[in-house]
Amino acid sequence: VNLNHEIVWQYGMTGVTGPGFNQLNNPNSAELLENGHILISDENNNRVIEVTRKKKIVWQYGSGDPTITTPLNGAAFASRLENGDTLITDSLNNRIVEVNEDKQVVGQYVTTSRAGSVASPSPTRAVRLRNGHTLISDQFNDQVIEIDSLTNGNIVFTQGDIGVPGVGFDDLNAPYDAKAIGDYTGLTPPFE
């Protein structure tokens, strides 16, 4: 959308839901990549896709992809990291997963592995910070956590009490998104 509120490019047909060409089912995030492609979290199609401006899918992780062994269930968010890997919030599998260009899992963190976790916390966002840590919005665990790595999973910061919704100091109620202000390692896209 340009500054005049005009649609200049669109993937997915308005009012049409599906997994086919130019179709999405509850797209939850989109990121303009350095190469001009768009990375889309197609949540209810359980996939993350990279599409060209000509609407060709050039990379896919998730539903319908026979090359992966661990399918996604609710791809809530995805971002392309500086090293070329893709960081995915696999919400209904209660995990954050990092996959390389060849669709191999290089790290994952399961949010139900923590003491006090609710049965289905459904994390919704994960962003990689400059220091290499990952900031996670662990929605129904009512926390935002920062972990040192997806492999180690050591929690170095928390906001909110695990599994306890609240509205007071240090309390959160189903946080959906969190970012560290001024600390984002996403690629700088070429703006038109």
Shape: globular
Low-confidence stretches: 187-192
* Mean residue pLDDT: 92
Could you state the order of secondary-structure elements as H and E? EEEEEEEEEEEE
Query: For the largest beta sheet, what order do the strands appear in spatially?
Result: 1-2-3-4
What's the Cα radius of gyration?
A: 17 Å
Largest sheet: 4 strands, antiparallel
> Could you estimate the helical fraction of the residues in percent?
under 10%
Helix segment tally = 0
Strand content: 25-35%
By secondary-structure content and strand pairing, the structural class works out as mainly beta
Number of strands: 12
User: How many angstroms separate the termini?
Assistant: 11 Å
Highlighted features:
single chain; 192 residues; mainly beta; four-stranded antiparallel beta sheet; 12 strands; 0% helix; globular; disordered C terminus
Task: Describe it.
The chain contains no helices and twelve strands. It has a four-stranded antiparallel sheet with strand order 1-2-3-4, with no helix packed on it. Strands 5-6-7-8 form a four-stranded antiparallel sheet, with no helix packed on it. The protein has a four-stranded antiparallel sheet with strand order 9-10-11-12, with no helix packed on it. The relative contact order is 0.12.
